[in-house]
Amino acid sequence: MFTLFANLLVAILLARLLGPQQYGLYTAILVVPVLVVSFFQMGIRATTIHILGSRSEKDDKVVSAVFLILIFTSVLGIAFSAVAYLLTDTTGYTPLLIGLALGVIPMRLTTIYTGGIFLGKEQIPKANLMNWLTGLLMLMLTLLLVVAFRWGLKGALTAMLLANICVAIVAVIMVLRQFKLRLKADKTLVKRILKTGIVFALSFLVIQLNYRVDVLLLKKLAGAGETGIYSLGVSIAELLWQIPLAIGVVVMSRSANASDFNLMTLQTTQLLRVSLIIGGFLSLGIVLLSPWVVPLVFGEQFTRSVGVMQAIMPGIIMVIAFRILSGQLSGMGRPEVALKAFAPALVINVLLNYLLIPHYGALGAVLATNISYAMASLLYVWMYARISGLSVKTIFTFSKDDWSFLSRFKRR
Question: Which residues contact 410 (CB under 8 A, 6 or more apart)?
C-alpha cells in the first residue's frame, strides 16, 4: 500500500511538472531498460526461489552463483540496451538521458536477484523492503530534483537512478551479512540456474512486451504527446496490480517451500477470488472518480487520460487473475505456462496496435491492450485449471471461507 501511494505521488508530480510531451518521453525512454531487465533477470529470481525453497543446494553456494550471474547479465543488459536505443526512435532523447536510463539496469537486476534470495528463504519482509524503500527514495528524490531544483526530465531519470542505486547497496549489504560469498562459483550450478532461468526469462520478456509495446508503438505512430496521455492513464490504472503483485510474491515464496500441493492450490484460488473482489471495487472507484480527480490532481492538459483510465479497466482486472495464479506456478518452477499464454497475445497486441493507433490514437492502444490482456489471462487460467485438476468454474466460485482463511494463510 505504501508503494502504491508513493508511486501515485511520483506520477502526479511528474505529470504536472513535465506535461504530456515530456511525460511521454519519460515513459518511452524507460521502455527499453524495463524490457531488457525483464529478459536479463534471466528468471534468476524465480529460479533462486525454487532452488532455495527446495533445499537442493547449500545456501552460500546458490547465492555465490547468483552474484556471478548478476555481474554477467548486468554487462550484457547495458550492451543490449545501448544497441536497442540505436535501432529505435530516439527523437527527444539526449546521450545524458540515455545514460541515466542505462544506469538503472544493473541496479534493478541487483534488487531483483537479491529479492529472489530472500523470498527463497521465506524472508518476505526483507524482500518487501526493497519495494517500499525504492518508492520512498524515488518520491523524496523527485521532490528534490524535479520540484525543488526544476531539473525536469533529467531530474526525473536521475531520481530513479539514485533511488535504485541506494536500494541495491542496501540489498547487497543485507546479503553479505547473512551469506558467505565465494569468489569462484560452482560452474555446474551456474549452468543449472541459467538453463532453468532461460524459460523464465523468455516468459518475463513476453509478458513485459505485452505491457509496454503499446508505448513504443504510440510514440512511433502518434507522437510523444499522445504517449503521455496514454501512459498516465495506464500507469494509474496499473496501480491496482500492487495488491495482487504483493500477494503473488507471498504465494511464490510459499509454493517453493510447500509440500502440500492441494492445500497451496486451495489457498491460491481463494486469494484470487478475494483479489478480484477488491480489484473490482477499486476499479469502480477509479472509473467513477477519475473525471473529477484527474483534471484536479494532474491538470487539465491530462483530461483525455480519463478515457484511457476508464477504458483499460477490464484488461487490468483480467490480469489480476494471472498475477495471483502465476505466483504458485512460478514457485513450482513452471514458467512455460505464462510463455504459452502471453506469446500469442503479444502477436495480437502488436497487430491491433498497428491497425488501431493511426485511427484512434491512445484509445486504439487501449482496445488492443484489453484484447491482449483478456486473451492471455483466460489462456493462463485454463492451463492452470488443467495443471491443478480444478475446473475453471471451481476456480471462480466464491465461498464464505474465502475471507476467513486469510488469517490462516499468514504464518505467525
Answer: none
The whole-angstrom separation of Cα 386 and Cα 2 is 36
Report yes or no: 325 and 381 within 8 Å, Cβ to Cβ.
yes
The answer to whether 115 and 246 are in contact (CB under 8 A) is: no
- How many whole angstroms separate alpha carbon 378 and alpha carbon 148? 46
Q: What is the DSSP string of 42-82?
A: TTHHHHHHHHHHHT-S-HHHHHHHHHHHHHHHHHHHHHHHH
Task: Transcribe 319-346 into DSSP letters.
Answer: HHHHHHHHHHHHHTT-THHHHHHHHHHH
Model pTM above 0.85: no
For residues 411 and 219, the model is more confident at 219
- Helix 95-120 crosses helix 124-142 at what angle (to 10 degrees)? 160
264 versus 63: the higher-pLDDT residue is 63
> What single DSSP character describes residue 148?
I
d(CA 94, CA 103): 14
- Can you give the C-alpha Rg of the chain in angstroms? 21
Rounded Cα–Cα distance for residues 100 and 154 (Å): 8
Between the alpha carbon of residue 391 and those of residues 73, 196, 348, 396, the distances in Å are 40, 29, 27, 9
* pLDDT tens for each residue of 348-374: 999 999 999 999 999 999 999 999 999
Non-local CB neighbours of 285 within 8 Å, separated by 6+ positions: none
Grid cell at residue 40: 536479463
For residue 147, what is the DSSP state? I
Closest CA to 212 of 84, 114, 54: 84
Q: Which residues contact 203 (CB under 8 A, 6 or more apart)?
A: 43, 335, 336, 338, 339, 342
User: Amino acid identity of 167?
Assistant: V
From CA 291, how far away is CA 147, in angstroms rounded?
A: 26
